[in-house]
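Re: beginner question about structure tokens

> Can someone show what the tokenized structure looks like for a real chain? I only ever see the sequence side.

Sure, here's an example I had lying around. Input first:
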Amino acid sequence: MTGGSAEMSGVLAVDKPAGPTSHDVVAMARRALRTRRIGHTGTLDPFATGLLLLCIGSATRIAAHLTGSDKRYRATIRLGAATDTDDHTGSVLEERDANGITRADVENALEAQRGTIMQMPPQYSAKKKDGQRAYSVARSGGVAELEAVGITIRELRLVSWNAPFAEIDVLCSAGTYIRAIARDLGNVLEVGGHLTALRRTEIGAISIDDALPLDAMSDPERVTAALIAPLRALGDMATLELNDEEIGHIRHGRSIPVREGVIGSIALSAYGELFALAVADADSIRPRKVFL
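And the corresponding structure tokens:
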């Protein structure tokens, strides 16, 4: 969204190629768009590809919600070998014959990872223990005493099985490690497993179909045309259109009466644009962030 001398603002969907880190993409965007007010909404490992959302200008204020949105991935798992990183970039710890495993075996083993489960983060992860990142401990030869985290796997579908490779499609809550799904699948089948390819295809309401290739970042006109308005970016959140009286109350930080059927985190809209983020309970709707 631009106009006159107003700063560029909105959410930019980028299709990250393999190689650069998420932070590299942010740095490239800052140079290309000549602004430092850019943040991303969840990292992708350098070998991974796919959807990365950049919040630009005032849209950085919705970054936390987008980071916490559900995400969809397409991933390839190699069974028969476990690695120290749970992906193909690590060192192989053990190899076993996986040729006797059938598609039915894989389907049955995946069932244990559907729904709300406790997942152990990989040793090579950004999880902190005693003030240190787990990957720092692992790189120095140690073992971080991590704790399992509650996550939700909403969908977990076996797309193809061509021994020893399983391709899966996953819709999961924020904080899920796809590498851990690969590791745990291999453990259930008692042959080991690790991730060989990963592509993120959705974050909340935004799809990879909305994304620009990375090399388009150098074209400000393409970037401006591709910017997603904050209200649309929050499309997975319940939205409530305000009337003039409610706008006045919310603008000054005051609560408004609750509406039937509205509860939890909601986006408040005024004249078709994001006006505020709020939380609704049984008694009222309270603004948390006001944008306009």
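Each token stands for a local structural state, so reading them left to right follows the chain. The chain has three domains: 10-69+204-229, 71-193, 238-290.
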